[in-house]
Amino acid sequence: MSKVISGLLFIGFVLLLSAVPAYGQGALQQQPVKITRDPGLELDAKHNLDVAKFYFKRKAYKGVADRLNEILYVYPEFSKADEVLSLLAEAYLKLDNKNDAAKTFKRIVDEYPDSLFVEEARKKLSTLPPPTDSPSETKKD
Fold it and tell me: What would be the CATH architecture of the domain defined by 39-127?
């Protein structure tokens, strides 16, 4: 009987030792996700952001929204996506599209909690009606 117990203890000890090197190498630790960015796409997205800022100064808000939506669609991993969303939300406000502005401000708050733009997004969000899921959702009498 003692041989069975010592055999089980030995197997348990071997299993324990086999797990220790894996843990020491970080296999069991959660590693931060490293996002690799395509330098060419990053440059294109930065150019489109600069063009959108130029359009914003010229009060061409539809052009701003088009450029910024293109960035978000083509290159969602853009390093300045929070800035893109902030400018897009402001353009929506200028176009009197409060629902999309609210959705976009909410996206900043939800997806970029550490962003420099989150505090302003929270302020603006508090002044807007809650966003609806689709533009066709309106109150009917």
Answer: Alpha Horseshoe (1.25)
